[in-house]
């Protein structure tokens, strides 16, 4: 009983931290759209030249981040299934816009093809896994829907991991920015997917171990 309570407490705290991080990065994305232009900032210069894909990506990715904690919250799914479905379609639309605009931005990513290819694969995987999750929901396979959408949320959270990696590489390790940025372009989503897969497979592995014992 104590172990169950401890496990529930850990899950609640982890969910709260995740929601706060999602809201913080989403607020940064929305705020960036209304910030002043900084000509000495290389990112600002690239974004200014890019066009509409910048506001589309920042707004859609920010919306997906805000919706992600709600969509994986079991209480919402059980108590208000219609709200969960509505939020799911909004999330899917945000992913579609965010991924397509992200592909456009990746062509001129800071660091060239080394980082751009990482962001491009992230956008494609984001689209693919979200589409699979939607297809499973339409087919009535809700277990597979849950698993694919958790993978999609892991990719949505790449925006959080990206900034954590940049802060670690630049602020703590004092590494060259381009080196850190290229590593973050790949690590922000591959690390998230690896952690998600471990989490998804751990209960099955534990059940198999119990059955063998």
UniProtKB/TrEMBL annotation:
This is DUF2306 domain-containing protein. Keywords: Membrane, Transmembrane, Transmembrane helix. It comes from the Bacteria. Pfam families: DUF2306. The chain crosses the membrane at residues 12-34, 54-76, 88-106, 118-140, 152-173, 179-200.
